[in-house]
User: Fold this.
Amino acid sequence: MPLRENSPAAPSAAVAIIGAGLSGLYAARLLHAAGVQFQILEARDRVGGRILSVDEAGRLSEDGFDLGPSWFWPKMQPAMRALVEEFGLSSFDQFSEGDVVFERFSREGPLRYLGPKQEPQSTRLVGGTSALVRALLAGLPENCIRCNARITRMALAEDGVRLTITLPGGGEEDVRASHVITAVPPRLLEATVDFTPALDPSTARRWRDTPTWMAPHAKFFALYERPFWRDAGLSGTAQSMVGPLMEIHDATTASGQAALFGFVGMGPDQRAVVGETALIRAGLEQFARIFGPQAGQPRATLYKDWAADPLTATPADRSFTGHVSSADTAWVTGAWRQRLTLAASETSTTEPGYLAGAVEAARRAVADTLERMRSSG
Assistant:
């Protein structure tokens, strides 16, 4: 994936965007279309944030498996559908033809049932969800993204905001911006950035109490030469009370790379105790129970524990606290209100915690920022 990155940080920008995930890149696209100068500062060494499509070796891929979000629902999410259509991206329906399997108790075998028709139909992008990241990136100017730039402090100044970057090799660097759009989860923002002046206590508490999408979860993939379960009339969908995987789906790509994936059903602390090696082994044993011995012999496996990713999760994410709920109230109050706007998916008023939420939140954040820039003259 080509990156527009690693140029020296500009001394100032009209808008600094913190985070180069979907919401940050879409916010940049909207600012670029409005003729506003911006700089994206990304803590990771790659763009995409929680969108991560990789090959069997775990490398970034243009025909990859989605270790992060993979689905959207075109009928329910018109903004997301419109963005996919605008870029001319191809999509395909999540495979769901055939029977589903339930594991209720360890003492009884898997139970097979006629699979219900998916409604609404979940959809995936050809090439993985990163296809959307690549499309957004291609429309941005050169040198507008700086990776390995972790923001640790923000301070209000007379003419805007001073942001402090902690450099990978040590040391710090300051960047100035008139306005800031943060495209990282509110909880992560509150936990990792020092604000001067301090946030209002109610604002800090709200950010801290907002669950981060994907943060408590781990995904396990097993890759095969062909989707053999389909020959047996199975959809690849399974639900389990036995585990370790609680929810399983067919993850075969549009190009035909066969795979199954599952969400690990135990919490982050328990996963840390069990360990990745044991979890992979137990996941393959479960696949073999449900889909037959062939499922226990993959050509490769992939595992991603988002709770162990310090650029996604905080200690508060080590428990399942439910999905973030929408609320049409201000995310920033007090002294920071005129200079700082939140654009992470969690802040969406319509689809918080989904890809579509990142699109809606970015659109709202840019509209608010442009209005404040006009008001300040």
User: Anything to note?
Assistant: The domain at 12-51+133-213+322-375 is CATH 3.50.50.60 (FAD/NAD(P)-binding domain). The longest strand covers residues 172-182. The chain is about 25% helix and 25% strand. Residues 1 and 134 are 7 Å apart (CA to CA).
